[in-house]
Design brief:
This protein has about 450 residues and is an alpha+beta fold. The chain is built from twelve helices and 19 strands. Bound molecules: flavin-adenine dinucleotide (FAD).
């Protein structure tokens, strides 16, 4: 059954306007590719729907044959998908419509849209969505997993600013879930991940961002201990209007990286302040007093927030994983620098502490399955993987760093920063998980949909 040649591919092609590729087809290798090039996806079939009707056709075809469907926008988080055997990989990349209602401060996007396609046009109106640090992460996958933004400490998780979600259910029904329609499904989708249907479009709130003071400060990584200790202290009183991250960075010597940082190692603090430059400078004064060697903080248009973190803007091979950390003591910083800083021999490109708190820790009255992120920092460690040996070394070092930080583990994982499979209990408190499983049983009892971080129908 898992051999696509035994599946009646022509039947699906007859039902579906979009591309359908099976192993051996010329297009197969191109369309099965994930953004994370280290993940070698080999599904039974790949479907690239052109429309909602195509999505219905793919889901119906799979269900009738006892196959599964794995939705994918970009493949940024393709790593944890358990298996693509007997599975249609449904790529949403052609569902690309973007509607901005500036007066109503809302946007509606198709499931294949990436953040840069929203932040560009909204920025022209002095507005911003709760986009993440990277321009080419998919809006839908990011938001279903929670969504940690540069505006997060002020406005909370992206999932909790969603107004409506259109999707195709396992029965092939097209539904619109919002606070009044399919409310349990609407709740589950906001932070519960991709287990409940194929999202075809999403509507969400846009926030005023007429003035953004943002950028990056860099110090030689030999100063990591001192800078990170000062950063953690500074975070304790930083206002909700500023969201930041601190990293140990080993910038690769790649030609498309700006010369001043290419091939060098730093401790970096970057982020965004929502407000005027004078008050932003006041908030950052204690960090600036540490005399960074590079300081790019300045007033920028909201659209430029997608570039301050220097995330790769094209597919790359990488391996990483994360955790949520509690309040970090000086001993925690020392331990982190010992395993990932100067002299550690770490092969990791980046080891990151993203500051939580503020609105991220305070659930709004009407929230989804991921009400909040509890803890002080979202941690993520990642390395480039150019060959299998490098993959082993990076994977082992990610494990080593995570084990080192175990004493400060806040006890919960964040889906979007988890690039390896994890038990659902790691992502949700028990009551939330039981409620998610009930939604799964109601909408997908046969477990047709295969998510990167799955919620199963188990009782
Ligand atoms: C460079 C980089 C920067 C990042 N920055 C941030 C950040 O600032 N903040 C943050 O929170 N996260 C960040 N992430 C993590 C990112 O949010 C997750 O990897 C997210 O899952 C990516 O969504 P995607 O759609 O691009 O990826 P995909 O791998 O395509 O999707 C991930 C999962 O989402 C679900 N899904 C996707 N589309 C659909 C759909 N149409 N219907 C149903 N389910 C669907 C599926 O379960 C899928 O397996 C970053 C990741 C990288 C690699």
């Amino acid at each position: 059954m898992d051999n696509a040649r035994t599946v009646d591919v022509d039947d699906l092609r007859a039902r579906c306007e979009g591309l359908v590729a099976a192993p051996g087809d010329q297009a197969y290798d191109e369309v099965r590719r994930a953004w994370n090039l280290a993940v070698d996806q080999r599904p039974a079939l790949v479907a690239v729907p052109e429309s909602v009707a195509d999505v219905v056709a793919v889901v119906t075809f799979a269900r009738e044959r006892g196959m599964r469907v794995a939705p994918q926008g970009t493949g940024h988080n393709a790593g944890p998908i358990a298996t693509l055997e007997n599975t249609v990989l449904l790529k949403t990349e052609k569902l690309r419509e973007v509607e901005i209602d500036a007066a109503g401060r809302r946007a509606r996007v198709g499931a294949g849209v990436v953040w840069a396609e929203v932040t560009g046009p909204t920025s022209e109106h002095g507005l911003a969505p709760l986009a993440g640090s990277s321009p080419d992460v998919g809006v839908v996958g990011y938001t279903l997993g929670g969504g940690l933004s540069w505006l997060g400490r002020r406005h909370g998780l992206a999932a909790n600013s969603v107004l409506a979600i259109e999707l195709v259910t396992a029965e092939g029904r097209v539904v619109r879930a919002d606070r009044d329609n399919e409310p349990e499904l609407f709740w589950a989708l906001r932070g519960g991940g991709g287990s409940f249907g194929i999202v075809t479009a999403m509507e969400f709130v846009l926030y005023p961002a007429p003035e953004v003071y943002a950028g990056m400060m860099l110090w030689p990584w030999e100063r990591a201990g001192e800078v990170l200790r000062a950063y953690v202290e500074w975070c304790r009183t930083a206002p909700d209007a500023i969201s930041t991250s601190a990293r140990l960075l080993q910038v690769p010597p790649l030609p498309d990286i700006p010369e001043p940082v290419r091939g060098r190692q730093f401790v970096a603090i970057d982020g965004a302040y929502l407000g005027d430059p004078a008050s932003g400078a006041g908030v950052l004064a204690a960090l600036r007093a540490l005399e960074p060697v590079i300081d790019t903080f300045a007033p920028i248009p909201a659209a430029a927030l997608s570039h301050i973190h220097m995330d790769p803007e094209h597919p790359v091979p990488c391996r990483g994983d994360g955790m949520i950390l509690d309040d970090l003591t000086p001993a925690a910083i020392d331990a982190l620098v010992r395993v990932a800083g100067a002299g550690s021999g770490s092969p990791l490109l980046s080891v990151e502490l993203r500051h939580l708190g503020g609105a991220l820790a305070a659930p709004p009255a009407e929230h989804g399955a991921l009400a909040k992120l509890t803890g002080s920092f979202a941690f993520f460690a990642v390395g480039m993987v150019m060959d299998p040996a490098m993959g082993e070394a990076v994977g082992a070092h990610v494990d080593h760093v995570i084990a080192t930080l175990d004493p400060w583990d806040a006890g919960r994982r964040y889906m979007n920063f988890s690039e390896r499979a994890g038990a659902p209990e790691a992502f949700f408190p028990e009551g939330t998980l039981r409620r998610l499983q009930a939604v799964k049983r109601a909408y997908d009892p046969a477990d047709v949909f295969s998510a990167n971080h799955p919620v199963t129908p188990a009782a």
